[in-house]
């Protein structure tokens, strides 16, 4: 779909209209099917349009990716400092907290993809944390 800025000839009313293509506009306009929504005239032509230019987009380079990973790792460190480690029992403990069977608190641990999917399906919010260099020690 293309949006055209249009203008009626007698009164100079400006308006926009959508067409499948430039040819579609030309065909409809030649058959007097395009009318001004203000005065109703079918004497319509394209008006000057400003180009639809999207904003500049900068590609993410290796340095940017490294900075983002460092920031994510720092957030993971802070989350771990405020949470209890529950190990491979994460999914079970998250359910117990969610259903009020144990006091609410922040936890982290390990869960398999099927376990994570099950938690999400139950409406339990989970987020993956990036690996930390110190985890390999």
How does this model look, in words?
The chain has 4 helices and 5 strands, in the order ββαβαβαβα. The protein is an alpha+beta fold. It starts with a strand and ends in a 16-residue tail after the last helix. β4 (84-87), α3 and β5 form a beta-alpha-beta unit. The longest helix has 20 residues, at 62-81. The protein has helices at residues 22-30, 62-81, 90-98, 113-121; strands spanning 2-8, 14-19, 44-46, 84-87, 107-109. 34% of the residues lie in helices and 17% in strands. Strands 2-1-3 form a 3-stranded antiparallel beta sheet. The chain has 2 domains: 2-46; 62-130, no CATH class.
Low-confidence spans: pLDDT under 50, at least 5 residues?
none
Biggest beta sheet summary: 3 strands, antiparallel
What is the mean predicted local confidence, pLDDT?
88
Number of strands: 5
Structural class: alpha+beta
Q: What integer value in Å does the Rg equal?
A: 29 Å
Shape: elongated
What is the subunit organization of this protein? Answer: single chain
Could you write a compact summary of the structure shown?
The protein has 137 residues and is of the alpha+beta class. It has 4 helices and 5 strands; from the N terminus they run E-E-H-E-H-E-H-E-H.
Topology:
Elements: E1 2-8, E2 14-19, H1 22-30, E3 44-46, H2 62-81, E4 84-87, H3 90-98, E5 107-109, H4 113-121
Could you name the key traits of this structure?
137 residues, alpha+beta, 3-stranded antiparallel β-sheet, two-stranded parallel sheet, 4 helices, 17% strand, elongated, DUF1178, DUF1178 family protein
């Amino acid at each position: 779909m293309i949006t055209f800025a249009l203008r009626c000839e007698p009164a100079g009313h400006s308006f926009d209209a959508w067409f499948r293509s430039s040819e579609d506009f030309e065909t409809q306009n030649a058959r007097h099917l395009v009318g001004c929504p203000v005065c109703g005239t079918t004497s319509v032509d394209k008006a000057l349009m400003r180009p639809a230019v999207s904003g500049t987009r900068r590609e993410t380079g290796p340095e940017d990716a490294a900075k983002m990973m460092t920031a994510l790792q720092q957030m993971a460190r802070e989350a771990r400092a405020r949470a209890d480690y529950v190990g491979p029992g994460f999914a079970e403990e998250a359910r117990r907290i969610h259903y009020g069977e144990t006091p609410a608190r922040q936890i982290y641990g390990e869960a398999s993809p099927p376990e994570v999917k099950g938690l999400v399906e139950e409406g339990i919010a989970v987020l993956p944390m990036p690996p930390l260099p110190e985890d390999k020690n």
